[in-house]
Amino acid sequence: PYDLLLARDGIDPGKAVYFEDMAKNLLPAKEMGMTTVWVHTDLEWAQAGRDDPRIDHQTDDIVGFLRTLANGS
Predict the structure, then answer these.
(1) Structural domains of the chain sorted by starting position, each given as residue range(s) with its CATH number in brackets
(2) Residue ranges in the chain whose pLDDT is less than 50
């Protein structure tokens, strides 16, 4: 499904950021070249893969994360 979305909407994966609350779901996006952000959750089933080095960033505050990016920090 990731490749279909990218192709359909003409998205360059090297310029895309993929947010997900299930850590393991970030891995296919990373393999396609996207920057990955795991949104922390306390749910045990969402934790699988959270320590994978292919996850670029982790946050529990999407708005704060985006604000930091927008401010160039």
Answers:
(1) 2-70 (3.40.50.1000)
(2) none
